[in-house]
Amino acid sequence: DVKVTQSSRYLVKRTGEKVFLECVQDMDHENMFWYRQDPGLGLRLIYFSYDVKMKEKGDIPEGYSVSREKKERFSLILESASTNQTSMYLCASSSPGRGNTEAFFGQGTRLTVV
Amino acid sequence: SQQGEEDPQALSIQEGENATMNCSYKTSINNLQWYRQNSGRGLVHLILIRSNEREKHSGRLRVTLDTSKKSSSLLITASRAADTASYFCATENTGNQFYFGTGTSLTVIP
User: CA A44 to CA A90: how far, in whole Å?
Assistant: First the structure.
């Protein structure tokens, strides 16, 4: 059974803390994604990685960075957490193939910054 | 932003009725996909339609795609209470990135 696993379901952090959100996939997928989901705004792409050590900015990269040292793991880093980063964070992976593929999602991490 | 939009934002119907939701997008696409999200969970893939296809069926789901209008619709026939969820369209662009719409929240009343 294919799986994308996010390290935490719920996380509470203080303003100014450095926060790591971890995502691991067991499908040998090349592509991995981080989204944040907010009511009324849907899913917005933060960062995208198409290979180890490769990354591209999505629509809202400000305040975030990412790390992909191994193919199966994609980390989202909040260098200095702020209250406006309180959100649901979703990780996904895919294998591009010929471009007709689906994204597989983790269960989400609900982050609260206080 | 490459994010799409969905319409309506919320939809409430009786069990057995059909539900239709629409999606508009902005860029060239390889394909368009629909996903379902139960409350507080990750998204699950439902159906994919390629850019050169106009209509596709899967069980009680029917998807249409109009690339000239950059729009798609998802029809769920004979809805059930278990269909209650949020539904998102997503476009996969030529860079293999997925951009999602804002979602439609569907409530099916038993």
Answer: 10
Residue A114: closest CA among A82, A87, A88: A82
* pLDDT at residue number A100: 61
Q: What is the pLDDT of residues B6-20, one digit of tens each?
A: 899 999 999 999 999
- pLDDT, one tens digit per residue, over B21-72 is 999 998 888 899 999 999 888 899 999 999 999 999 999 999 999 999 999 9
A49 vs B89: CA distance, rounded Å: 21
Does B96 sit within 8 Å of A50, measured CB to CB?
yes
Q: Residue A77: CA atoms inside 13 Å, Cβ hemisphere, count? A: 9
Within 56-85 of A, beta carbons closer than 8 Å to B belong to 56, 58-59
Contact call for A45 and B97, based on CB within 8 A: yes
Residues of A in contact with B87 (CB under 8 A): none
Which chain B residue lies closest to A34 (C-alpha atoms)? B98
Using CA atoms, how far residue B90 sits from A1, A33, A36, A72, A92, in Å, is 23, 13, 15, 23, 13
Neighbours of B57 (CB within 10 A): 11
**Closest-approach residue (CA) in chain B for A37:** B102
Average pLDDT, chain A: 93
